[in-house]
Design goal:
This protein has 91 residues and is mainly α. The protein has one domain: Chorismate Mutase Domain, subunit A. The chain has three helices and no strands.
Length: 91
Amino acid sequence: MCNIIHGETLDKLRARIDELDAEILALLNERAKCVMKIGAIKQKEHSEVVVPQREIELLDRLTSLNQGPLSSDMVLHLFQEIIDTLKELQK
């Protein structure tokens, strides 16, 4: 968590952002691996890659979990981009 503490410097905050970015990247790659496995299963089962209801449920769940400071619209935008980007891995 990035609570502002008296005496924190710009460099320290930027270093923390760098750490968080590395964690986010690792999680996105882990998510991508799961997406690829799901894609392989869908190909074997001849299932549709895109399941709109699943996306709706996912986005609804994430916005309900959101406690800010990101707005619900920001969460929707970020995760819709992630979903759309990673759909390519299922094909």
